[in-house]
Amino acid sequence: MAYNSTCKSVDFGFTQKFLPSVYVTVFILGAIGNCLGLKSMYNNWRKIGNVNIFVLNLCLADILYILTLPFLVVYYASKSWKYGNVFCKILRLCFCINLYGSIGFLTCISVYRYLGIVHTLRVKGRITARLSMLIVTLVWFLVFLQSLPDMFFDKTFFKNKTSCYDTTSDIYIREYLKYSIGKTVLGFGIPLLIMLCCYGHVAFILMTKKDIDVILKLRCIRLVVILTLLFSVCFIPYHIFRNLNLVTRISKLDGVCQKWYNSMYIANQVGNGLACMNSAINPLVYFFNSDDLLMKCFIKCGRGRQSAAVSFEEDSALRKKTPDSMVKK
Mind listing the UniProt keywords for this protein, alphabetically (predicted)? Predict the structure, then answer.
C-alpha cells in the first residue's frame, strides 16, 4: 500500500454539488411515490394481507426522513449549518431510523413472502394482524435502540463555518467506528443474509415448480432478482464506504495518509446518496408491481399444495372407510 508524506485536501465541493441534487430528487419522487403508495394501500388493504402492516410502517419511515431533506439541502447548498447542535442530531437520527427501519421492514416483507409462497399451508391462519403488529413494535424498538447511541456523539464543529456531521467529529471518531461496525453487522448484515436466504429459496421454488405458467414464472424470478439487487445497491455501498471512510479519517489523524483518501470520501458521499434514494425507490417497487405479481405465484403455489393436501386427505379417508364397507358385505 502506498502512502503520502502529506495528506491531500478533500474535495468537499463534490458533496456540495452532489448531495443537494440527490436530496431534491428524492424529496420530490419520495413525496409523490409515498402518497400514491398510501392511496394504493388504502384501496387494496384487504387484498394485500397482513404484509400491509409492514408496508405502512415502511412508508412512515420514508416520510419521516423525507421531511428532513429540505434542511439538508439548505445546509449543503449554503456550506454552513444554521440550526444548532440539537436539531443536527435529530436530523441525523431521523436518517438512521429511516435507514434501519427500512431495512427491518423490507426484511419482514421478504420473510412473509417467503412463508406465503414456500410454506403456504403451514402458515395458513397462523399469521395474524396481532402477530404482525407485535413484530412491527419489535422492529421499531430495535431500530430506536440501535440508533439512539448516535445522539451521544458530537455532531457539529465550528471552523470558520459550522458543520453538521453525519458521523462525528475527529475527537470521537475511534469510538464511532466501533459503533458503526456494530450497526453494520446487526442492522444490515444479518437482515441481508435473511433476505438473500428468503428470496433465494423463493426463486428456487419458482424455478422448480411445473404448474406455474412459464412467462409468469420468469417475471416472478426477474422481480425477485430486481428486489434483491435494489436492496443491495441502496445499502451495501453505504455501509462499506462509510466504515472505510472512518478508517481513513483515523489514519489521517495518526499521520498516515493513503493516496485514495479523497476517492474514499467521494465514494462515501455516493453511498450516502444511494442510501437516500431508497426512500424514493421503495414506493415504486413495493406498492405497485411486486405484490400483485408475487400474489399470482402465491395463488398458483397455494392451489397446487392445497389440491395435493385435499387429495391426500380424501385418499386417507377412503382407506379408513374401505375395511368397514368390506365387513358389511
Answer: Membrane, Transmembrane, Transmembrane helix
